[in-house]
Amino acid sequence: MTTFTIPTGARQIAVTEADQEVVSSVTQVPIVGLGVNMEANGKYHVRAQVAFQLDGGASGFKFSFVAPTGDIAVRLRVDNGETPAVVTDQYRDTGSTVNDAIAEDGYHFMTIDGIVDATAAGSFYLRFAQNVSDASAIRVLTGSYLEVTKLN
């Protein structure tokens, strides 16, 4: 996984440079390029928008994040972009996953917005997989991004 370190007051933006897909797997994998190193006792504002495509609606999606130990308030929201149906969850830890079986092929998006107050050094990164193992793919699209600002 490629990560970057952010100086105080700086904003860094990482963008996926190629599509990445998962087929026949519910095991979450890091989204290549969407990770950042966080220093101990650092406070960070994190935002991301991840565009993804489902080839088979039955496979659905899983998204989560991994963060260093600390006080975490991060909201993940997934929208299918086509109907009023929206999956919205709010987490304060890294063990939670937002997942669903969107019954529609096509394009969808996931957004993240929150604060990570890291008490220990570590990495913050996004992960994804299929919700149900299926021969059709879930694909994170080129141009998805992670924006991180170090607040102290």
Describe the structure.
The protein has a single domain (4-150), classed as Jelly Rolls, CATH 2.60.120. Strands 2, 3, 5, 7, 8, 10, 12 and 13 form an 8-stranded antiparallel β-sheet that branches. Strands 1-4-11-6-9 form a 5-stranded mixed β-sheet, with no helix packed on it. The chain is built from no helices and 13 strands. The mean pLDDT is 81. β7 and β8 form a beta hairpin. It is mainly β and 152 residues long.
Helical element count?
Answer: 0
Oligomer: single chain
Shape: elongated
Radius of gyration: 15 Å
| N-to-C SSE string, H for helix and E for strand | EEEEEEEEEEEEE
Estimate what percentage of residues fall within beta strands. Answer: over 45%
- Could you say which structural class the secondary elements and strand pairing correspond to? mainly beta
Distance between the termini: 25 Å
Number of strands: 13
How many domains comprise the coordinates? 1
Major sheet summary line: 8 strands, antiparallel
The CATH class turns out to be Mainly Beta
Low-confidence stretches: none
CATH architecture: Sandwich
Q: Level of helix content?
A: under 10%
Mean pLDDT: 81
Using the coordinates shown, work out and report the CATH topology. Answer: Jelly Rolls
